[in-house]
Design goal:
alpha/beta, Aspartate Aminotransferase, domain 1, Aspartate Aminotransferase, domain 2, 3-stranded antiparallel β-sheet, 14 helices, globular, L-serine-pyruvate transaminase activity
Amino acid sequence: MSSQPPHPALLIPGPIEFDDAVLQAMSHYSESHVGMPFVNTFGETLSMLRKLFQTSDPKSQGFVISGSGTLGWDQVAANLVEPGDEVLVLHTGYFADSFADCFETYGIKPTQLKAPIGERPQQNEVEEALKARQYKLITITHTDTSTGVLSEIESIAQLVHRVSPDTLIVVDGVCSVGCEEIRFDDWGIDCVITASQKAIGCPAGLSIVMTSGRALDRFKARTKPPGSYFASWKNWLPIMQNYEARKPSYFATPSPQLVHALHTSLTQILSRPLEERFQKHKEASQKIKKAIADMGLKQLASKPENQANGMTAIYLPEGMSPPEILPTLMKKGVIFAGGLHKQIAAKYVRFGHMGVSVTDPKRDDIDRAIKALKEGLEEVGYKAPNGST
């Protein structure tokens, strides 16, 4: 049984429910961030991240910096491109808009390739865009948290390498790392950004990035200094390299307690084959999506190949809005998120199913959520077609 106080199951697309051991790691006594006990823990954490991202290339490098997933955008925009550079942003929802805004803040010129809500840009569209202009990098949101749309990273990466080999491949994996397969080396990815509080299963507060040797070479060849101080790899790269080599180093104070929690979470994740973890998330996702269809409800991502395994965006019955159902779900011990996509935010809710809610057999979070959604909709007056509730 969990030692946490009773609380509703947090089933939003992050933060997620946390394992007791991860939370207990946060209570670690205070220690010096340049003392060897912490340096060793941080170094092991950076080494474990290589296994999570599936990279064995010694030229690649992980970064763990205090901040949210959004700081990953700043790291990309500040370090991998320069003012006036052109970048291609594949759009599957709200977070592509935000990434584009971040680029513009740094004087970068983003071109967005947009798909209809619930869809993703098609291969031929991406190829046409890449042939029309030389882009310094392309960004792909692996799972867009606003729509639940899953992008196909491997085939896009192959396309980029074939059509525009000098274009860096950047993946926004904030809502995918830890629940969707990512093969950093095999797929030839240059940068993946993520955060601690989603499928990795650690409290919020850490921006996590993995970069390729090619991306670091691009950074080192800049003609202008990075446009940020805190996000600059000029400041952070030697720190991360030193920590991973178990050498004390300092630029800005990290969060030792959060790093301990991340170390614990990664130890748990890597104690079993990653393929098994991805399969569990896929099975839970398919169970949820079948239950939603049985209730007569539709997803924003209507095609199976577009549907993420760590979250589901669900259209509410016609005329119903999130404030009508979310309080009912909370009373039943389940917390979902409201809509986020600006055009349709009042029409849908989001169900996050990542981490221990999926992988811990002692938890009944998923079954409880399905039951709560079914009963909650009935209580607010919804009758499914053909009595399928």
